[in-house]
Amino acid sequence: MIRLDREGGLWTVTIDRPDKANSLTAAMLAELADIAEAAHESRALVLTGAGKVFSAGADLDAARAGLATSPDWERLSGAIARHPGLTVAALNGTVAGGAMGMALACDLRVAAPGAKAFYPVMKLGFLPQPSDPSRLVALVGPARARMILMAGQKIDAETALSWGLFDRIVPDDDGDVLEVAVSLTADTVAAPPEHATAIKRLIG
C-alpha cells in the first residue's frame, strides 16, 4: 500500500490505498517513516497519493486503537523536514488529519484544483502532532492556523494558495500534479548534493 520508485537521485513515494481515501494503518505509517529516513540518501523526495485523495490521515479504526497518538507521525514529519535536498508534496487531492503533517514538513506543496486541506483535531478530540502547529503557523500565520486547527475549517485550493499553505495549483490542462512536482526537483537532482544542502541551509 506504500509504493516507492527510485529514479536517479529522486525518490517518489505513493500512498496507494485509494479505496480507503489513502488513510493510513499503523504499518503504513511506520513504513512511510522508515522510507523518509532512508530517503536522506536521495537528492529529492516527492510524496503523492493514488486516486483522487492525497490522504485522509489515520484510518479511523486504527486511530481509535491508538494510531492518532503514535510517535511515528512525528518520526515521519521530522525525517521529511531534515531531508538534505528538496521535498515536494504532490497533492493529487484532499489532505486531511495526520497526513497534513507530512505535507507541512515538505519544502513545497503543489495541488490539484479540487484539493482541500483540513485537520479536524478539535472535532475528533485529538491533539495535532507536536511539530505541526508551528509549521502551519510559519506558512499561514497564527490566526489562520486557528481557523484550521480550532475552527475546523476546510480550506479549498485557491484559499490555501492565497494563504501560503499551497505553493502552486496545477490546472487540469497543465498536466498531472505528480509530473509538475517531479519537474520542480530537476535542478536539485542534477546538482551536487552538497550544493543543494548548502542552499537549503541558507534558506533556513
List the helices and strands and how they pair.
Layout: E1 2-7, E2 10-15, H1 26-38, E3 44-49, E4 53-55, H2 60-64, H3 71-81, E5 86-91, E6 94-96, H4 99-105, E7 108-111, E8 116-118, H5 121-124, H6 132-140, H7 142-149, E9 155-156, H8 157-163, E10 168-169, H9 177-184, H10 186-190, H11 193-203
Parallel strand pairs: 2-3, 3-5, 4-6, 5-7, 6-8, 7-10
Antiparallel strand pairs: 1-2, 8-9
Helix pairs in contact: 1-3, 3-4, 4-6, 6-7
Keywords:
single chain; 204 residues; alpha/beta; 2-enoyl-CoA Hydratase, Chain A, domain 1; six-stranded mixed sheet; four-stranded mixed sheet; 10 strands; 20% strand
Structural commentary:
The structure is a single chain. The mean pLDDT is 96. This protein has one domain (2-203): 2-enoyl-CoA Hydratase, Chain A, domain 1 (Alpha-Beta Complex). The radius of gyration is 16 Å and the shape is globular. The protein has helices at 26-38, 60-64, 71-81, 99-105, 121-124, 132-140, 142-149, 157-163, 177-184, 186-190, 193-203, and strands at residues 2-7, 10-15, 44-49, 53-55, 86-91, 94-96, 108-111, 116-118, 155-156, 168-169. It contains eleven helices and ten strands. The strands form two sheets. It has a six-stranded mixed sheet with strand order 1-2-3-5-7-10, sandwiched between helices. It is α/β, with parallel strands linked by helices. α1 (26-38) packs parallel to α3 (71-81), α3 (71-81) runs parallel beside α4 and α4 (99-105) packs across α6 (132-140). A hairpin with a 2-residue loop joins β1 and β2 (10-15). Helices cover 43% and strands 20% of the residues.
